[in-house]
Specification:
The complex is a heterodimer of chains A (119) and B (114). Chain A is mostly beta strands and 119 residues long. Helix content of chain A is 0%, strand content 49%. The mean pLDDT of chain B is 93. The chains are: A mainly beta (119), B mainly beta (114). At the A-B interface, strand 5, strand 6 and strand 10 of A face strand 5, strand 9 and strand 10 of B.
C-alpha cells in the first residue's frame, strides 16, 4: 500500500481564489511528521509547511495552511488567495517514527499534484 | 549565502559509462540525501548519510554508489549497473536533529543517457 496518496494529478484554480490539495497517509507509528513541498518548473524543491503528529493545532505559514485530520489520516494543503506564481507541482511527504532523539531520516513522497493558476 | 549546490545542471552520458554527480552544502548540516525523480513521480530515496564516513542505502540504491569523506560533500556515482539512469537527481541536507528537521534541496541535476 502506498504510504502517501495524492489523488489529484492536476488542479486548476482562478487567481485570488482558495484551493485545497489532498493528501492521505498510511502509518502505524504514533510519531510522524507531514511536509508539503512546492516544485516549480525549474525543479528545485521548496519547503512550504510542516505538521507534527502531536501538534494539536493546524499548521499555518502565510497563505498556506494544513488541514490535519488525524483520525482520517489526511493532511490537505490549503492555499488561500492563489497567485500566478503558485503554479507548480506540490508534493506531500511523511517521515515516520521520529520523535525527539529518534533516528529515522527517510522522507516518503507522494506522486504530486500539478496546480495551475488561471488569470 | 548558505545553500546547496549541485553540478552540473544537465549531464549527458553514453550507455555503459559511470558518471559522478556533485553535491556541496555550506549549511553545516550533518545529514545529506540523494533522491531520484522520474517524470510524473515523487522523489525516491537513493542513499543518505547521517554523518561523515557513514551512509545507508535508501529504497533504490542498486546501481548507485556514494561517499561522504567531508561534511560538506556527498557525491553520487551512477554506475553502468543502473539499468535506467535517465532521471532528475536531487540532493538535500538537514541538521538530522529533532522531529521537524527540514530538508533543504539543491537545484538538481538532469541526467540523460544517450
Amino acid at each position: 500500500a502506498q504510504k502517501i496518496t495524492q489523488t489529484q494529478p492536476g488542479m486548476f484554480v482562478q487567481e485570488k481564489e482558495a484551493v485545497t490539495l489532498d493528501c492521505t497517509y498510511d502509518t502505524s507509528d504514533q510519531s510522524y511528521g507531514l511536509f508539503w513541498y512546492k516544485q516549480p518548473s525549474s525543479g528545485e524543491m521548496i519547503f512550504l509547511i510542516y505538521q507534527g503528529s502531536y501538534d494539536e493545532q493546524n499548521a499555518t505559514e502565510g497563505r498556506y495552511s494544513l488541514n490535519f485530520q488525524k483520525a482520517r489520516k489526511s493532511a490537505n494543503l490549503v492555499i488561500s488567495a492563489s497567485q500566478l506564481g503558485d503554479s507548480a507541482m506540490y508534493f506531500c511527504a511523511m517521515r515516520e517514527g521520529r520523535s525527539s532523539g529518534g533516528s529515522n531520516y527517510k522522507l516518503t513522497f507522494g506522486k504530486g499534484t500539478l496546480l495551475t493558476v488561471n488569470p | 549565502d548558505g545553500g546547496i549546490t549541485q553540478s552540473p545542471k544537465y549531464l549527458f552520458r553514453k550507455e555503459g559509462q559511470n558518471v559522478t554527480l556533485s553535491c556541496e552544502q555550506n549549511l553545516n548540516h550533518d545529514a545529506m540525501y540523494w533522491y531520484r525523480q522520474d517524470p510524473g513521480q515523487g522523489l525516491r530515496l537513493i542513499y543518505y548519510s547521517q554523518i561523515v564516513n557513514d551512509f545507508q542505502k535508501g529504497d533504490i540504491a542498486e546501481g548507485y554508489s556514494v561517499s561522504r569523506e567531508k561534511k560538506e560533500s556527498f557525491p553520487l556515482t551512477v554506475t553502468s549497473a543502473q539499468k535506467n539512469p535517465t532521471a532528475f537527481y536531487l540532493c538535500a541536507s538537514s541538521t538530522g536533529q529533532g522531529a521537524f528537521d527540514e530538508q533543504f534541496f539543491g537545484p538538481g541535476t538532469r541526467l540523460t543517457v544517450l
